[in-house]
Amino acid sequence: MCFTCTGTSWPATRWGIQPGSRFRDANGPFLRVNDPSAIAPGIRAGIVLSFFVVLLAFVGLTPQFSWVPELPLLAVSVLIPLVGYTAAGYRAQQRSGRIAGGVLAAAVAGVVSGLAGGLCFVLFGKSLLNIPVGIGLGCVAGAVWGAAGAVLSVRFGHPTNRR
Questions:
Q1: pLDDT means over runs of 10, the chain (163 residues)
Q2: Alpha-carbon distance 96 to 141, whole Å?
Q3: How buried is 155 (Cβ within 10 angstroms: 0-12 exposed, 13-18 middle, 19+ buried)?
Q4: What angle do CA 29, 136, 102 make, to 5 degrees?
Q5: Closest to 33 (Cα-Cα) out of 81, 98, 85
């Protein structure tokens, strides 16, 4: 996805962007939605996070585990996905060389783990509305925390080794 500059009085000419040129980052277009270097790590992270989401849903929703304290369970069930989304964004940014790649990978991980969480709620007798809510919240949380991980990767990570 590239945008074209058409005007000669456009302010970006101060930064060396010439009229008619395409906006690109150092590694090519800003974001390619079909970029496998961004989607594959997101799917992998989503599957790993889904395992933990299902485990925590089982512990939190079954009556046999009612003795488990609720506050630590809620804290762990929020922190594990957030750390996973940040790690997915960090890793995908290093792999793709783009912050947008980290955001996309973590958003995909959020969708996969949110779907797993929503399905767990439905299987334990809750409303079907939990599926789209889980997908939406997972996508938003994944994008936000993936962006944080991608920015951390740019700031503190090693330079990208492109293939």
A1: 46 49 50 66 94 94 91 94 95 88 94 96 93 96 95 80 45
A2: 21
A3: exposed
A4: 30
A5: 98
